[in-house]
Amino acid sequence: xxxxxxxxRVPAAAPxxxxxxxxxxxxxxxxxxxxxWSDAWHDLRRNPLFVxxxxxxxxxLVMAAWPGLFTSVSPRHGDLSTHYLKSPEYxxxxxxxxxxxxxxxxxxxxRVVYGARASVIVGVAVTLLVTVLGxxxxxxxxxxxxxxxxxxxxxxxxxxxVPFLLGAMVVLNTFDVRTxxxxxxxxxxxGWTQIARVTRxxxxxxxxxxxxQAAKALGAGTGRILLRHILPNAVAPVIVVATIALGGYIxxxxxxxxxxxxxxxxxVSWGIDVSAGKDQLRNAPHVLLAPAVMVSITVLAFxxxxxxxxxxxxxxxx
Length: 318
What we know:
Helix content: 55-70%
CATH class of the domain at 96-317: Mainly Alpha
Family: Belongs to the binding-protein-dependent transport system permease family.
Mean pLDDT: 84
Order of helices and strands: HHHHHHHHHHHHHHH
Keywords: Cell membrane, Membrane, Transmembrane, Transmembrane helix, Transport
CATH superfamily of the domain at 96-317: MetI-like
Largest sheet: none
Strand content: under 5%
CATH architecture of the domain at 96-317: Orthogonal Bundle
Domain ABC transmembrane type-1: 116-306
Low-confidence stretches: 1-30
Oligomer: single chain
Main location: membrane
Transmembrane segments: 49-69, 120-144, 151-172, 178-198, 234-252, 288-309
Shape: elongated
């Protein structure tokens, strides 16, 4: 009898909800389906491409924000008497002489570290500006349509017809001193067209959905429909394009600085150092290789991140 009483006190084992949960749902008593964003994050965490690119980008962001953590040497301090084109000492990792010295006797390692700030600022700032400008432009054109879409599309075609680098060279050539923010504004002025096209197409597709038509039938205002219904469901392809484009803007800044039309001294930039190192390519190739490799790694990291995000957000690629 006591055994029966004791057994009655023991609660029955709860069913294994995690094993019985259907695919594509979170474990739990309700089995609530994952949203697009949680499902994308679930895939991203298991994608080696995303993990590697995220680690590289995190490292670059920390380097750009706190360069003093990586070196205590000033990137503008030079000593021609002892450090002129001095070869790298690869055994001294993360030391001023690790990557050698340039023609001004400055530590290439210190300049690589501090050069990340200008490149990251240009890439992130241009991406934010073109996403906001192109996103607003594309949302208005795609949602309202009609004659407004026709006018805005012709404006879009006009800007899209200007070659990006050539137009940036013409704009930047009008300034005697080219700071980081002047370069940002010049690139954003010419680079918003791709985001606008993607946003317009995504909004045209989304506004035909049943939930948008239901919101209109219930009397929801234009602002509420755009912000609550269309924007969250049309933003995924915009994020993918913006992530990939960020690396392109960093490469564009380096290219313009290499041509002498982008950033200028005393700003520390990888493009400026690549331009200075081209004259020493035969007798001191390390002057050019270090900043050029950093540009390549940074651009590759953002392209890899964009590809991973695209694969996670596009159901057709699953």
